[in-house]
Amino acid sequence: MSGFPAGTAPVKAEFLISIDPIAVPDDDAAEGSGGGGLTSRNGRDDPDTNDGGGRNKRKRNKEEKKARQGQNKNRRFGKVRDEQDICFKIAAGTLCEFGAECKYNHDLQNYLAAKPPDLWMPTVDELLSASSGSEETQNVPNSRPARCPIFEEFGECKYGFKCRYLSAHIQKALSEDGTESLSLVVDEAKKAHAAISAKEVNYVGADTQKLLRTKKYVFPVTDAYLRELQEADKREQEIEMERKHLKEAERERREAEDSTVVIAEPEQKQETVTEDKTDNLHTQIAADGLHPDVDTPDVSIRFAEKNRLDWRGKTYLAPLTTVGNLPFRRLCVSYGVDITCGEMGLATSFLSGSKEEWSLVRRHPSERTFGVQIAGNKANTLVPTAEVLAKECGSQGGIDFVDVNCGCPIDLVFKTGSGSALLDAPAKLGKALIGMNKALGSIPVTIKLRTGVKDGRNTAEKLMTRAVGGGGESGWGIGCITLHGRTRQQRYTKLADWEYIRQCVDAVRAGEADEDLPPVPIFGNGDCFSSHDYHSAVDQYHVDGVMIGRGALIKPWIFTEIKERREWDISSRERLEGVKKLAEFGLSHFGSDTSGINTTRRYLCEALSFQYRYVPIGLLEVLPARINDRAPRFRGRDELESLLASPNSADWVKISEMFLGPAPEAFVFVPKHKSNAYESQG
Ligand SMILES: Cc1cc2nc3c(=O)[nH]c(=O)nc-3n(C[C@H](O)[C@H](O)[C@H](O)COP(=O)(O)O)c2cc1C
């Protein structure tokens, strides 16, 4: 490593272009710019929004709009549509019930004549053997049939004539009078198989969204629980009044007595009850109106009755706003990740029936253990959200856990009392979690924490001990705790505090009663970048597993490394296979029409804006690689490896063109890192 400035990746001399490290992207901006599931929805995240003619006007609630304006000023993604639009029914090869009255184009021949040439999905071998870049490889050679990833997966392509890989599923027939008719091909066998094995789940439709929007959705469990809380609050107020009266009476009694008389015992006891400063948590809980010993509502769904989370030794892909979308999670599954979690959604947006928010709960069937993450600030938003999730998705078996975000650092979320603000409001959190447990039935609730709000003031240990409780029954019925080893204030440039993570785990384990029930799994989180990091975290820091965020964004194959306990010197060709997969998964989710391709391209570039940071380990003098090491300028072992390491966003667009065809002029890509969302952050 000699000769390298501290914190620089030790690239072998023969690959070095310059020892100066390239600028480090701001991961704080990347996390914050999308925080709250707030800003990711300015592309077309929800494939169902595509109705072929923009019939659905997107309604966004005020909070989301404000967030987008405040947090994402610099990010614009050009809208791309076909030059001529066509009625989506006609595009799907069906009849339109509006007939001549329909305000959308029904002239298929005309539409097809104006449509840009088809694309094709080359294999990596075809791509690498082709002489030059994107445009040439994208023209369908007459000798080679086009491939449509959606048709291949589902046996039909619901984008029909709008599909940009149309030649893979169109057939022409000549009628007797010599006119040509066009129809869409369906592979019935594949279609039947896909209906069982390949369909995404957790569709929460327009009807439910409307009921939520119009406040007609019914919440029996929430209503009962909130009533219970109100009664508990009332009781607490009565107790408080009683205490005041006693105190007052005592004061009067003392005044009447000789001042030299020794203070009576009961008074001291009274003081310790009301001013016990040794236990901030309890004081806080009492202050928030829920005395832990007096008023904690009964946890009728006990941990023992919940679906048990046996997560020891598993890998967990962190919730990642914008970048942790369904196609990316699917890619990680293909590399072996065990547990996946959707991007954070706001409880208030779920409850206002936001289409974009509900699109975040979508799950691919390959996601073996899948959870939804929500952010909210109290029981009366978190509990009803849990209730809808349980009713609408739980019944489909679509959710394995619901995670409450207690770590989001961004101002917009923090200031509403959500995200990391909950770290300092354990009473509110406890009430919400207990209610969520009731609302979710057998689906476990998990929490994702940071170490604390302010640097030098870690509070997670106390919170975790309280959350887990003792006697074999968890205090708040928690299914799993993930602890990100940073405070809200701490930036990504400083390493996560794994020593403190160990301290928290040990404290929780020491407090747990020795019963038959398995201990609540505790996952550590922060800076995991290799198989070595994962396994040493489990061995040295006593966690049950590690949640991985940026490590997966930079090298999604990290999950294979961990499973196989090896550091994988992945080749550029193998990496390109991964990029192709992500493109195909994107098309399958967002659509293979012009608009879907645009959205896929945007998210592919988003992914590449992290993946370029990977320094191939075959180029390193010392292993394992470390996430915070800055890369010096280097050349790869082949042209493709150099291209994949390019920090230039124009090159990410170029890579996208290999599979998605030439980017339209309107397409502009601004990576999340450049959105400066943290400028306002303290
Ligand atoms: C781009 C980005 C988006 C994130 N979005 C979320 C989110 O939606 N919910 C959440 O709890 N944490 C979010 N985080 C934090 C990560 O889940 C994780 O806790 C953090 O990155 C630390 O893990 P790492 O060092 O492995 O990246 C995000 C982080 C990044 C970089």
From TrEMBL:
Its EC number is 1.3.1.89. It holds the Pfam family Dus. Residues 22-76 are annotated as: Disordered. InterPro entries: Aldolase_TIM, DUS-like_FMN-bd, tRNA_hU_synthase_CS, Znf_CCCH. SUPFAM superfamilies: FMN-linked oxidoreductases. Gene3D superfamilies: Aldolase class I (3.20.20.70), Zinc finger, CCCH-type (4.10.1000.10). GO terms for biological process: mRNA processing. Its cofactor is FMN. One of its GO terms (molecular function) is tRNA-dihydrouridine47 synthase activity. Residues 222-259 form a coiled coil. Keywords: Coiled coil, Flavoprotein, FMN, Metal-binding, mRNA processing, NAD, NADP, Oxidoreductase, tRNA processing, Zinc, Zinc-finger. A zinc finger (C3H1-type) spans 81-109, 142-172. It comes from the Eukaryota. It catalyses: 5,6-dihydrouridine(47) in tRNA + NADP(+) = uridine(47) in tRNA + NADPH + H(+); a 5,6-dihydrouridine in mRNA + NADP(+) = a uridine in mRNA + NADPH + H(+); a 5,6-dihydrouridine in mRNA + NAD(+) = a uridine in mRNA + NADH + H(+); 5,6-dihydrouridine(47) in tRNA + NAD(+) = uridine(47) in tRNA + NADH + H(+). The keyword NAD applies. PROSITE patterns: UPF0034, ZF_C3H1. Residues 81-109, 142-172 form the C3H1-type domain. Catalyzes the synthesis of dihydrouridine, a modified base found in the D-loop of most tRNAs. Specifically modifies U47 in cytoplasmic tRNAs. Belongs to the dus family. Dus3 subfamily. This is tRNA-dihydrouridine(47) synthase [NAD(P)(+)]. The lineage of its organism: Eukaryota, Fungi, Dikarya, Basidiomycota, Agaricomycotina.
